[in-house]
Amino acid sequence: MAYDIVDPADLLTDGAFFEDHFLKKANELDWLKFSGRQVLVRGCNSAVIPPWAFMYITGKLTGIARSVRYGNEHDNIVVYRAPKDATA
């Protein structure tokens, strides 16, 4: 199964997590490009990223994506699935 991937590491600054930079980059991202798509939020990386950052990304995708999974391409869990009657 193919997923559109959101990697929280792409929202870091020089490989380090800074809350204000992360939020600025996350808010500038075009989340609508994931409309109706199956999205994987990559959770396996070497950077230290606080748990709330993954929840923030999931919150941005909820109601837009068809489904949101957390993990990697081979081992992941569904954290959101749009209702069957949703038009997204």
Describe the structure.
This protein has 88 residues and is of the alpha/beta class. The protein has one domain. 24% of the residues lie in helices and 22% in strands. It has 2 helices and 4 strands, in the order E-H-E-H-E-E. It has a 4-stranded mixed beta sheet, with helices on one face. Helix 1 links the parallel strand 1 and strand 2. The protein starts with a strand and ends in a 7-residue tail after the last strand. The mean pLDDT is 92.
Total beta strands: 4
Strand content: 15-25%
- Low-confidence parts, pLDDT < 50 over ≥5 residues? none
- H/E topology pattern: EHEHEE
Structural class: alpha/beta
The total tally of domains equals: 1
Throw out a few tags for this protein:
88 residues, alpha/beta, 4 strands
Brief account:
This protein is of the alpha/beta class and 88 residues long. The protein contains 2 helices and 4 strands. The chain is 24% helix and 22% strand.
Provide the fold topology.
Elements lengths: L3 E3 L12 H10 L9 E5 L8 H11 L5 E5 L4 E6 L7
Parallel strand pairs: 1-2, 2-3
Antiparallel strand pairs: 3-4
